[in-house]
Amino acid sequence: MGGGCGTGADGRRHELSARVEHLPRRGVPTGVDRTSWNWLVGALLGALVAGPAPLPAQDARYGVGAPGPVQRFELGAEAKGVFHTLWESSVAAGAERAACIGGVREGGVARVTRVLVLDPADADSMGIAAAVSIEKCGPPDWFGTVHTHIAHRDGRHPYPTFSGADRGVMRLWLKRWAADGVFCLLYSPTDAHCETEGDSGSLVAGPETGTSY
To answer: b vs e for 193-208, b when ≥16 Cβ sit within 10 Å of the residue's Cβ?
Structure first.
């Protein structure tokens, strides 16, 4: 069978790529980083072609009821190792890298134990990686995403929290999956910032959002 653009995920990616190619290259709002803007635009386009969100799967990691508010974050040994690899590959490429994260939420702790690094080939200058992360990083296998911030605001100091564009992607993830989400940001070779949002409550600021890997 030839000549078609495919169905399902392949068809949606084909449509997304076509839309991206026709977007104007100007018009980034004043004060917004081009990479962050592209990341958000790619995610918005991905949401347009992803179709309606499925009902969230019932899984032991989520349970039938709400898992309760998160009070702190922990990283398992395997997750720390993959976070290091993700950061190093991001620095080497000079570009952001992203991954799906999964684990358990119980007793007020969100513990990241598993990480799936997303293929850099899924990203382009318009941030299609954001759309891919929303589509791939949902329950029951994953409860959120992690990505890198390797840029420095003055050549020395990192951006230690999510940008406005990042938060736009996070809201799209929450809308797509209708489940509590955990989101982490790697902003140095050893430091991460994590947040959680959803019906069970949010933890978006304070010392509890900082962790090391």
So the answer is: bbbbbbebeebeeeee
125: which residues sit within 8 A by CB, 6+ positions away?
A: 38
Model pTM score? 0.72
User: Cα dihedral angle (6, 123, 101, 139), rounded to 10 degrees?
Assistant: -30
Secondary element (H or E) of residue 75: strand 72-75
Q: What is the pLDDT of residues 92-106, one digit of tens each?
A: 999 999 999 999 999
The whole-number pLDDT of residue 130 equals 84
Which domains are seen in the chain, by residue range?
8-212 (3.40.140)
Q: Say if residues 84 and 91 touch (Cβ distance below 8 Å).
A: no
CA distance 21 to 45: 12
Q: Which residues of 72-98 are buried (b: 16+ CB within 10 A; e: fewer)?
A: bbebeeebbebbeebbeebeeeeebbb
Backbone φ, ψ for residue 3 (5° rounding): 85, -15
- DSSP annotation of 81: H
Please, where are the H alpha helices in 3-113? 8-21, 34-50, 77-93
What distance in Å separates the CA atoms of residue 22 and residue 10, rounded to the nearest whole number? 19
Name residue 41's amino acid: V
Q: What is the helix (H) or strand (E) element at residue 165, kind and residue range?
A: helix 164-177
Cβ atoms of 17 and 128 within 8 Å: the answer is yes
